Amino acid sequence: NAGTEADVYISVYGERGDTGSRQLLRSQTSKKFLKGQTDIFAVEAVHLGCLYKIVIGHNGLGSGNGWFLDKVVIKDPVTDLDYTFLCHRWLDQGQDDGNISRELPVTDASMLPGRQELELKREKTWAAEKWKFRKGITLQFYNRLTHGFVCLYPDSRVDALGDKKNKYGKVSFMWMCA
Question: Can you tell me where the transmembrane regions are (predicted)?
């Protein structure tokens, strides 16, 4: 469920202006914005010079409109440069922080060593996931070794007996832990 059927829009910002909001209509793939897929679009615009940010989002319409966006890469045909905009977050009213659009600054991934790119992804992932650790949230982990649940309660108690079933009703969050 990481893809979307909603209409996706992008605005590209550079030192000489911006494109305005453009709908991404025709991908080089037959069905656009599917999970794990890379879509390629041609967006016509005047040359904006060096790019520094994008705003990307969708209209929130249609079934399954939530979308997990990893990154956007813009290839400038004039300078032959690639501009990378890392996201690694949900654009979904029911996930993450509920936003369906994101403002993403440029990250020149071609100049970053792999470790720095991983650190940027880690920071963005923590920004997206830290809400799970707010006060009042009960966390449940499933232990594959014992085949039981371990619960971390808001008052700092830990139930680590490894019960074989979820006796607390609806799971707030569940991770598979080895």
Answer: none
- Bridge-partner residues for 25, per DSSP? none
Q: Distances in Å between the alpha carbon of 24 and those of 6, 9, 35, 88? A: 11, 6, 17, 19
Domains plus CATH for the chain? 8-114 (2.60.60.20), 134-173 (no CATH)
- What's the chain's Rg over C-alpha atoms? 20
Beta bridge partners of 148: 143
Q: What is the mean predicted confidence (pLDDT) over 72-81?
A: 88
> With contact defined as beta carbons under 8 Å apart, do 91 and 58 qualify?
yes
pTM of the model: 0.59
| Closest by Cα among 10, 39, 11, 12 to 26 | 39
